[in-house]
Amino acid sequence: MSDGTLPGWVCKRSDLAEAQACISWAFSHLAPLTKRLDEWLERSVVTELRDPGEHATHNLIIGVEREPLPLLFNVEVGAYVNTIRSSLDILAMVLVRRYGLNIKEDQVYFPIARSESSFNDKNSPGRKFLDALPELDRRLIESLKPYKGGSQGLWTLHHLDILRKHRRLLSVDLHPISITLQGTLKEGDFEPLAVEAVHVNEETIIGMLRKGVIPTLVRSNFYVRINEEGDLSRRPVSATLVYLMDMAAGIIALFDH
After folding, report:
1. Which of 39, 221, 223, 228 is the most buried (most CB within 10 A)?
2. C-alpha span between 128 and 208 (Å, rounded)
C-alpha cells in the first residue's frame, strides 16, 4: 500500500499508534529492499558449468558470487527486525500507561523467555509487568506462549534481534529457488540439487549435467536468506520479515479493545 501500512490493519485506539507505526515503517521498506536484493542477485550471481575431473560422469552446475553481499543489507534487515521487536516493547509500555501501573519505564518490555519455566518464574524480570496487568490482558499475553518451544514466531523475533548484534543476519550462501535448462536432454542427463544444494566457499552446487551434454541455456533463480537453520533457511529474507511483521501486528491488534 502507498502509505506503508499492512493491508487491512488499522488500530482504533490512538494509544497503539506508535506500535503500529513501527510495523508500518518496516513494511513500507520491504518492496524497495526486495527490489535491491533482486538487482544484486541479477548482477552478482552467475550460473556456470564446472568439470570436477576425469573420474566424474557429470559436470557440476554451480552458482557463483561475483562479489560479496553488501554489508548494508545486513544492517538494514537488522534494523527492521529490531523495529518489529520494539513494537511489542512499545505495546507493553502502552499497557502500563493505559492502566496506570506503577512500574519504572526501564523495567517495561514485552516478555519473551528462553523457556516455559523461565517465563513462569515469579522472580523473572517480566513477571512484575505481567502480574500487574488486568486479568484479561495478562491471559492474552500468556496465551501467546512467548517463549522458546511455545510461540515459534515470537522466539524467532526475539532471537534474531539478539543475533543481529553478534553476527551477520544474512547468509552468504545462495539458495536456488529453481533451475531450468534448455536443450536436448535425455533421462538422467540432468540431476537437480535445488532442494539440498551443496555450498562450498562462495559457490553453490545446484545440479549435475552429464558430460557431453551441451545445454543452450542454464538459468537459476536464487534468494538471500536469514543465516539460521530450520524454516528460516528455506524462505527468502523478505518472506521472513513479512512473517514477523504479520505476527507482531496481530499481537498489537489483540489489545485494540
Report:
1. 223
2. 58
Cα separations in angstroms, 99 against 20, 102, 113, 133, 210 = 19, 9, 24, 8, 70
Question: How many residues are there in the chain?
Answer: 257
* Measured CA distances, 203 to 21, 174, 230 (Å): 40, 8, 21
Mean pLDDT of 146-150: 95
Name the domain count of the chain.
1
Does residue 4 sit within a domain? no
Q: What is the mean pLDDT of the chain?
A: 86
- Comparing 34-43, 48-57, 122-131, 203-212, the range with the smallest average pLDDT is 203-212
Within-domain flag for 8: no
Domain interval for residue 162: 14-254
- The pLDDT of residue 3 is 44
Question: The cell 557429470 sits on which residue?
Answer: 58
Half-sphere exposure of 64 (CA within 13 A, CB side): 9
Please determine, for residue 197, whether its predicted confidence score (pLDDT) is greater than 70. no
Indicate whether 86 belongs to any domain.
yes
- The CA distance from 122 to 18, in Å, is 30
Highest mean pLDDT among 114-118, 184-188, 193-197: 114-118
Within-domain flag for 5: no
Q: Are the CB atoms for 69 and 168 separated by under 8 Å?
A: no
Phi, psi of 101 (to 5 degrees): -75, 145
